[in-house]
Design goal:
Blueprint lengths: L4 H9 L3 H9 L6 H17 L4 H6 L5 E4 L6 H11 L4 E5 L15 H21 L1 H16 L20 H4 L10 H5 L9 H26 L7 E7 L21 H8 L4 E7 H16 L2 H15 L1 E5 L17 H13 L2 E4 L2 E4 L4 E6 L11 H5 L3 E4 L5 H9 L5 H10 L4 E4 L1 H17 L6 H10 L1 H6 L7 E4 L1 H13 L1 H7 L1
Parallel strand pairs: 1-8, 1-9, 2-5, 5-8, 10-11
Antiparallel strand pairs: 3-4, 6-7
């Protein structure tokens, strides 16, 4: 079977596993095995789309469980993947469905949210594609508001028999029902023009167009961006309706916003806004007219079904056997609710039915109390790839401080630069910060790289407070400075438990 040009380009345009790992290395230190597994899974998505349709249906996604303590990079890998891959992506917490004393959200809402994000993304892409034409239309509407053409200069369209005639300008007042347009006046209905008046009107119209072009030039040059202008815009107010249902609003496959927009007439309201804001408002309205929403929805659903990724965080919170009775939502019950979605089912959304058979699920959890084997067997079988992320050591902390593209050291020095202060953090200071972070994690609680955020914030606290009043422009932070700011807190175990 011959494939379309779009299908043949899928594999060529997709990043290779090595390229994916290299991109993740710019932001995440270590954890090569996890990066490798995710990279292979993403590449296989593109490979599947190159197969014949019969084979595509048989190739199921190889879902992944990432196991590791908090702060080692599980969520960061997911967050960076969202920016890296051109695919619908959503991150949800399994604990969202297990709040004590509260039923939580319907598990199918993760697919509805993913579809909503995909539609929004495709709509943005389509808006960018018609941006030029929408801008031209918005400019014409803006010019009409800034310099409207007088009514007497507008080109008059010939009236039709069904239209009401302006009897003062056309003929003496007579009963329209008694006129036979074709026999007496011909069709379309015309009167003998006044040649002299037409010349004057034509000259005035040309003068108006010349002035309009001058305003257009000033508009494009940005000379009148702050000038207030009154525009007619669509009223975006939607009637508020509160609905109570046993299953929650997610189960109601009704788009109330669209329903009311179809029942109620489109209303416009006048707003007086600067030209810069008016251009954006009008441009958005014109872009919506140019976009085919049916095509947008079809494209969005196709992307979700073939390229969608769901990152299911804190899956360890729903693992474990039932050991006690109480108001807790059943953990196994939540697992059984999630199971059909991961196995593959059809979810009803307001945009139509969405199949989850080929959506990639990446789960993550610390699994301190429970183990992946505590998940129900059916759910375990749907996550064939398991990757264990390693705890961070002192060397990793040092790398996190300096190597990533937006490392913490770069962030904090940039913040001080906004106050006109150049901060220099020496190598021995970085070594001391990494050592302190590792020490506190070992003695208090291992929260991974998040410990660096608390230490850096405490270290720079006095500088940030005094920065606007400092007379010197240069500050050097060395190991002695770090010890002076943090040593006492680290020594006091009880105090460090709350501060660091």
């Amino acid at each position: 079977m011959q494939k379309s040009k779009v299908e043949t380009k899928v594999l060529a345009e997709a990043l290779t596993p090595r390229q994916i790992v290299e991109e993740l290395d710019k932001y995440i230190i270590g954890q090569f095995e996890a990066k490798r597994s995710v990279a292979i899974a993403l590449r296989n998505r593109a490979r599947r789309q190159m197969l014949d349709e019969d084979m595509q249906d048989e190739v199921a996604p190889k879902n992944i469980i990432m196991i590791g303590s908090t702060g080692v990079g599980k969520t960061e890998i997911a967050r960076r993947l969202a920016r890296l891959v051109d695919a619908p992506f959503i991150k949800v917490e399994a604990s969202k469905y297990t709040e004590i004393g509260y039923v939580g959200r319907d598990v199918e809402s993760m697919i509805r949210d993913l579809t909503e994000l995909s539609v929004s993304r495709v709509k943005t892409e389509q808006t960018d594609a018609v941006e030029k034409e929408a801008l031209e239309r918005a400019e014409e509407r803006l010019l009409d508001c800034l310099f409207p053409m007088p009514r007497n200069l507008k080109v008059k369209t010939p009236p039709r028999p069904s239209e009401e005639l302006d009897v003062e300008e056309q003929i003496e007042e007579i009963e329209l029902d008694e006129l036979d347009f074709e026999e007496e006046f011909g069709f379309p209905f015309e009167l003998e023009p006044d040649e002299e008046d037409n010349k004057v009107i034509e000259e005035q119209r040309k003068r108006h167009e010349k002035t309009r072009e001058k305003i257009r030039k000033r508009l494009r040059d940005g000379e009148i961006e702050d000038k207030p202008v009154e525009i007619n815009m669509k009223s975006r107010s939607t009637p508020f309706v509160e609905i109570f249902s046993p299953g929650g609003i997610e189960e109601m496959d009704i788009n109330f916003k669209d329903m009311f927009s179809n029942i109620l007439p489109n209303q416009t309201k006048k707003r007086r806004v600067p030209v810069s804001e008016a251009r954006q408002i009008l441009m958005q309205e014109e872009a919506e007219k140019l976009i085919d929403m049916d095509a947008v929805i079809n494209e969005a659903i196709e992307r979700v079904e073939n390229s969608g990724i769901v990152f299911l965080d804190e899956i360890d919170k729903i693992a474990g056997r039932e050991s006690r009775h109480g108001p807790d939502v059943s953990r196994e019950g939540v697992q059984r609710d999630i199971l059909p979605i991961i196995e593959g089912s059809t979810i009803a959304t307001k945009y139509g039915a969405v199949s989850t058979h080929h959506i990639l699920f990446v789960a993550a959890g610390a699994f301190h109390v429970s183990n992946p084997s505590d998940l129900i067997p059916e759910l375990q079988g749907r996550f064939p790839i398991r990757v264990e992320l390693k705890s961070l050591n002192q060397s990793d902390f040092k790398s996190i401080l300096t190597e990533p593209k937006n490392a913490l050291v770069k962030q904090y020095t940039a913040l001080l630069q906004t106050e006109g202060i150049e901060a220099t953090i020496t190598d021995d200071a970085i070594d001391e910060i990494a050592a302190l972070a590792f020490q506190v994690n070992e003695s208090v609680e291992d929260i991974g790289a998040r410990r660096l955020h608390t230490i850096m914030e405490k270290l720079f606290e006095n500088l940030f407070f005094d920065a606007p009043d400092l007379e010197k422009d240069n500050v050097t932070i060395d190991a002695e400075y770090v010890k002076g700011e943090l040593a006492e807190i680290v020594k006091d175990q009880d105090l460090s438990r709350y501060i660091l």
